[in-house]
Amino acid sequence: MGLTLKQAQGVVQAAHEKAVAMGVKMNIAVVDAGANLVAFIRMDDAWLGSLDISIKKAKTARFFDMPTGELGKLSQPGGPLFNIEVSNGGLITFPGGIPLVGDGGQVMGAIGVSGSTVENDHTVAEAGVAGLPAR
Amino acid sequence: MGLTLKQAQGVVQAAHEKAVAMGVKMNIAVVDAGANLVAFIRMDDAWLGSLDISIKKAKTARFFDMPTGELGKLSQPGGPLFNIEVSNGGLITFPGGIPLVGDGGQVMGAIGVSGSTVENDHTVAEAGVAGLPAR
Amino acid sequence: MGLTLKQAQGVVQAAHEKAVAMGVKMNIAVVDAGANLVAFIRMDDAWLGSLDISIKKAKTARFFDMPTGELGKLSQPGGPLFNIEVSNGGLITFPGGIPLVGDGGQVMGAIGVSGSTVENDHTVAEAGVAGLPAR
Amino acid sequence: MGLTLKQAQGVVQAAHEKAVAMGVKMNIAVVDAGANLVAFIRMDDAWLGSLDISIKKAKTARFFDMPTGELGKLSQPGGPLFNIEVSNGGLITFPGGIPLVGDGGQVMGAIGVSGSTVENDHTVAEAGVAGLPAR
């Protein structure tokens, strides 16, 4: 069964609360197993350019079922996936995107977060993952 | 002052509740005065193709500060704005997008709804507009 | 010899003054013989969606060396150029774009205006054409 | 309150005068807080390919509220934002884009300059920033 809106909103809310607690301004996107957007928010005064990046991080994490930062290790000059970022209308391969995994181990979608350092982006995305509600 | 996330979420929630009450499955998007996305939800089993349409409706309504259906009256064959839809990366000119207007009369952004008949889309968008919270 | 910046700015200024006199809020674009932008202004509170349209009108007028509205007569359903608007990354074929013609009869570029009715857009574009300075 | 056309034109003019004084041929773009173009000029014989770059520099500087060159330090191979340039329809992350900041510290938009070395581009952009008129 697919990711529900209720679940996606739970993920967004958990990430949002973490961002507020950290004092960072984030764009937060959740996509489903088809890599299509289910829920999105942009916090007040968050970087405008991070809107697109948050969605691309979520898509990238689902496209390859791994955290975006892992893909970024492989896309460096000389690496096996050099410049993979130009595919799929644009991938983002630095941290901040993480797959959402169901109880049975299946990937249900992904979260993408952008608006601060990549470490902060990843931390807020982790909070979103942890907040995935059971169906 | 710009549209806040809290206001955008209030608009989305009001539209969402209307859609649930009507038994329709919608994509609901809210953009700010710069026509950039602030909040978005896709209801369970809503048409996937309506995702992009809802965002384009919101953008279109803000781009021209009028309900999308009004623009569509002018873009018909023989009309003064025939095929305006190819501009701005794609406009949607049938009903479902409505500007959000502040107390002072200034356009603060817009809502775009897609997922049912254009009449239903417009009705749900109107409910979203009516739900715009004061700051 | 190509259209100079000074000439393009003269065209923009003449159009701008006409728009102010008419009380309309316009986006005004001027392209050169290569259909590439030379000068652009967006008046305060002009429609945001008219930004792209003004540039597309200028390009369209130069692409076919005729006023955009003339092309629009041919692109209607049943007409010889039906839906030509999808070419070239998007054409605009309603009035508001007019070629700029040099003393020798050669097309030097074009002006595109968008922000009001197509009649007003065309009138402001005509004022821009009339304001083309000699080199 | 948003950036006015008069302010944007003042920024463009200051940058233009600097470019003339330096003997360089520039494309100069100014966007508002929504990252949408307000004013643009291309100097005679300026690189044609710099047209798009100047606009993308201005957008990039506003998207992340920092000079484009600062972002470029982070987007190098092995850096935290490697290949961020594929997002947002294309970013430019070398010098030449700088935010425009209002008296109250709020970002009002940005200037983007392209047509010479990146050092010269940045210098001309700085002149534009210094020329931002009070409202």
UniProtKB/TrEMBL annotation, chains A, B, C, D:
InterPro entries xref list: GlcG_carb_metab_protein (IPR052517), PduO/GlcC-like (IPR005624), PduO/GlcC-like_sf (IPR038084)
Write down the Pfam families for this protein, in alphabetical order: HbpS-like
Q: Which domain of life is it from?
A: Bacteria
Matching PANTHER family: PROTEIN GLCG, SLR1406 PROTEIN
Record protein name field: Heme-binding protein
In its UniProt entry, the species of origin is given as Hymenobacter ginsengisoli
Source organism phylogeny:
Bacteria, Pseudomonadati, Bacteroidota, Cytophagia, Cytophagales
